[in-house]
């Protein structure tokens, strides 16, 4: 070999100069034949290089495929936990993995804004319960791109009168912004053993934050909406889903009329303060503020005794219309839950006194307080203020609604 160097030099040389053999022969002192030999060697090395890169490409494909398989497995597992109703397609997997929750909601929002029928169906009580994602989409109307509010052609959310004779006991369950909101799924599940119990759930804005599907014990509202017996989930926005006109139902009034018993578990310090002061700036507090405390507005539904007593003498009851004659009254059961310092704060005592002494069922009122317990709280502090354990709460509800009493005269487990 005239160049007498390593093979790689031939490759380089032949390749570099192959456009000009004369020049190359001169520079390298090689004749034409030798040049051809070098060129063919170079060609084989080029082929080898090409094969190497082909191999790299193949390996990359395998790695991508394994990653994709991993995605599919995780997606399917999350599906098993009931967090997804999506069909397993490549775009749905990509969608699941490459969008954050808020982005997902946003994208789904855009998709659903065209689908008013589906929206109405899901909002309708008795049909598929509304889910948070949908409610976030169209609170009081759909924001159009021009900033104008389009009025969705929504049907009425709830008409209590449609459910007077549904043969079910109605529990209006509400949660306000305490960490104990994470017990809501377990409470609903525990009550689902009573087929004659219908539950509607109201969540304050803060309470919704605790049920976003962020952990195993905090399923998404979408998943919760599939629970048996849960016939509706409502948020503040639902009050204003459509600009109100005469004849439209008013959600907080309909929910009150619909309920036989309201349970607020957990009751946050903030909501306790508002309720005891008579404030009503969201859906939960509006229902509470509009409550039939006298027992002389809503009355009992046929075959469904009300949980509390009106404390009226029998002769007074006799003069009342049929639905009030049994002397029953609806009530509100609250389970406060807050940090120990909040619970021990002097203002809390005053507020609890209002609920328990002034408005308490024991004194002829309509409130019942399930006192918090002492334990280590989610924030790390140990002390009082923790929500009563969910078994106690479920048990009190069952008792008040006579779900466990075979003599009560309506369908039970
Ligand atoms: C992570 C987190 C946990 C909270 N836990 C509680 C709680 O256990 N009890 C409480 O009264 N407030 C708690 N708060 C504060 C309430 O969420 C806040 O006061 C809120 O305004 C309550 O609004 P609402 O009563 O309308 O739901 C918590 C806040 C955060 C961010």
Report on this model:
- By secondary structure, this protein is an alpha/beta fold.
- It folds into two domains: 1-92, no CATH class; 154-400, 3-Layer(aba) Sandwich (Rossmann fold).
- Helices cover 43% and strands 14% of the residues.
- It has 17 helices and 14 strands.
- It has helices spanning 7-17, 21-28, 32-80, 90-98, 101-112, 116-123, 132-137, 184-191, 205-209, 221-224, 251-258, 269-277, 283-289, 314-318, 340-344, 346-358, 390-400; strands at residues 142-143, 149-150, 169-175, 197-203, 212-215, 218-220, 230-234, 261-267, 308-309, 328-329, 331-336, 367-369, 373-376, 382-386.
- A six-stranded parallel β-sheet has the order 7-4-3-8-11-12, with helices on both faces. The protein has a two-stranded antiparallel sheet with strand order 1-2.
- Helix 11 crosses helix 13 (283-289) and helix 12 (269-277) crosses helix 16.
- The longest helix is centred in the first third of the chain and has 49 residues, at 32-80.
- It starts with 6 loop residues before the first helix and ends in a 13-residue tail after the last helix.
- Mean pLDDT is 78; it is low at 1-8, 80-87, 99-155 and 409-413.
- Flavin mononucleotide is lined by residues 176-179, 204, 206-207, 268-271, 282, 337-338, 342.
Report the portion of residues in β strands: 5-15%
Q: Per the principal axes of the C-alpha atoms, what is the gross shape?
A: elongated
CATH superfamily of the largest domain: Flavin prenyltransferase-like
Helix content: 40-55%
Query: Which CATH class of the largest domain?
Result: Alpha Beta
Unreliable stretches covering 5 or more consecutive residues:
1-8, 80-87, 99-155, 409-413
Strand order of the largest sheet: 7-4-3-8-11-12
Sheet with most strands: 6 strands, parallel
For the record, the count of structural domains works out to 2
Structural class: alpha/beta
Mean pLDDT reading: 78
CATH topology of the largest domain: Rossmann fold
- List how many beta strands DSSP finds: 14
Please report the distance between the alpha carbons of the first and last residues.
97 Å
Radius of gyration: 34 Å
Q: What is the helix tally?
A: 17
* CATH architecture term of the largest domain: 3-Layer(aba) Sandwich
